[in-house]
Specification:
Helix content is 25%, strand content 27%. With 489 residues, it is an alpha+beta fold. The termini are far apart. The model is unreliable at 188-198, 298-335 and 352-391 (pLDDT under 50).
Length: 489
């Protein structure tokens, strides 16, 4: 017995002579890959063979795969069946940017599936040979994989192992191709994600929910995080940072080259946000951003990382980029310019009104449902607003900032009740966060939850003296705090 022989030799015939092994290409923890010929069409194909290095071996005088110890038989058979299911799953995903499975069969006490042969190498090999790719090339290949992921997710599948070595670059047709669905999982409408055991993952390309094996938190955003890490590797040639490093250091955990555009930086930071609600939730959100990128002024000294304001010694958190350029709020700088302009006009009106002595008062920003406006020829009198009594309002729209992130919020409550409900879109990414809490004596407290009902943050603040805005502190589920300033619309 020679345990050093773990792959088939050239000219080995498989499946009744239909396939001939031409060369061994590569091996991984769960299989060997070969270049082969489909003899009936004289066509070059790739064949993947199930072979577990930990528990498998092959006789020198036989092609059969055996298990080294009886304790490993059950594990070997379980994983072999999953390998066969992987081929079936890939076969259903017919797409120009997903590797095509042609055939599958069992032989030599193991399993095989046959794929189209790609003339080229992996993205990891390409970057290793040529260095980091240009942003233009990176975006082109990103669109290819996003298109593939759209089909994957629409079929209720998560890939769960996107990384540079699982993306092939077809040099003949200049396309990127997603391969290796060995870690992929199928969603069930009744039971959610179907899992049997812990999942393997690749550090740097796995978000925190995957590292922690929190299977119930997996979603399209899990694959998009990995794709963001792959984009970082492609454009920098460096392995992406771990989620823990991003949590602690924000953008400083990344090593972006000086020539990289702010658009690309923001895209990577958005896709690799350690907080699931802050990432793009669907492929469409990323596509929408790529089709309508926000304008960036490279001369502006705008910070690329947020964090609690006023805490100079604390780490910043990475930003969340807007998902739609048409819906963007002004920058914090222009926001204050507008605010100062409004205040100036407001004061000017008061001064003029006071000098004329016509007795006019400022209009309330609240809709006074119980009061009426009395008209007399030549004058208009409106009731003095009562900013200390907000018991009449049932609906309210707020717009402003959490830290450096802008939000639009809608709140509702029944007349006379302290209980408040509402929601808002997180920075126009399309991810809706729900709100519930109370408003008592102008003190606002709201619990924030995501679409799964998980607590993600807490607002606590109060109405300002003039009644224009609520101000306070927002604390996320990790205990990080940010000041919020939300103005009534």
């Amino acid at each position: 017995m020679n345990t050093n022989i773990d792959h088939l030799s050239a000219n080995t015939m498989l499946n009744g002579g239909r396939y001939r092994i031409d060369a061994f290409l590569a091996s991984g923890g769960f299989g060997n890959t070969y270049r082969a010929t489909r003899t009936d069409f004289n066509e070059t194909v790739a064949i993947k063979e199930f072979f577990m290095k930990e528990v498998s071996q092959r006789d020198t005088d036989s092609r059969s795969v055996t298990v080294t110890h009886p304790d490993g038989i059950e594990k070997f058979e379980e994983q072999k069946n999953k390998f066969f299911i992987e081929a079936e799953r890939m076969r259903t995903l017919r797409h120009p940017h997903i590797i095509e499975v042609i055939d599958r069969f069992k032989e030599n006490n193991t399993a095989y599936y046959v794929m189209e042969y790609i003339h080229g190498g992996t993205l990891a090999e390409y970057v290793g040979k040529h260095g980091a790719v240009s942003e233009e090339m990176a975006k082109k290949y990103l669109l290819h994989i996003l298109d593939a992921l759209q089909t994957v997710h629409e079929n209720g599948i998560y890939h769960l192992d996107i990384k540079p070595s699982n993306i092939m670059i077809d040099e003949r047709r200049d396309r990127a191709i997603l391969i290796d669905f060995g870690a992929s999982k199928q969603m069930s409408a009744e039971t959610g994600i179907t899992l049997g055991s812990a999942l393997c993952y690749t550090p740097g390309y796995a978000p925190s929910e995957q590292v922690e094996q929190a299977h119930d938190k997996f979603g399209p955003w899990t694959d998009l995080y990995a794709l963001g890490g792959t984009l970082y590797f492609a454009t920098t040639g460096e392995k992406p940072p771990l989620p823990s490093a991003i949590n602690e250091e924000g953008e400083r955990a990344f090593h972006f080259p000086s020539g990289m555009s702010q658009e690309m930086r923001h895209l990577i930071l958005w896709m690799m946000s350690p907080m699931r609600p802050s990432r793009p939730q669907t492929v469409n959100e990323v596509l929408k951003l790529l089709q309508s990128p926000p304008p960036f002024d490279d001369s502006d000294e705008t910070k690329l990382s947020g964090g609690k304001q006023g805490d100079a010694g604390k780490k910043d958190t990475p930003p969340i980029i807007h998902g739609n350029g048409d819906d963007r709020k002004p920058s914090s700088r222009s926001h204050w310019y507008i605010a100062l302009g409004v205040i100036a006009v407001f004061l000017f009106i008061i001064i003029i009104a006071g000098s004329q002595g016509d007795g006019m008062t400022e209009a309330s920003i609240w809709e006074e449902q119980s009061d009426t406006i009395d008209s007399v020829p030549g004058t208009i009198e409106e009731p003095e607003p009562d900013y200390d009594d907000l018991s009449d309002w049932t609906g309210c729209e707020l717009s402003g900032w959490i830290g450096e992130y802008n939000v639009d919020m809608v709140l509702e409550r029944e007349s006379g009740s302290d209980e408040v409900t509402g929601s808002y879109e997180y920075l126009k990414t399309g991810s809706t966060l729900n709100l519930s809490g109370s408003l008592y004596n102008n003190l606002l407290e709201l619990d924030e939850t995501n679409q799964y009902g998980e607590e993600t943050g807490h607002f606590k603040g109060e109405l300002s003296e003039r009644g224009f805005r609520y101000r306070g502190e927002f604390t996320n589920y990790k205990g990080e705090s940010f000041r919020f300033d939300l103005a009534v619309q």
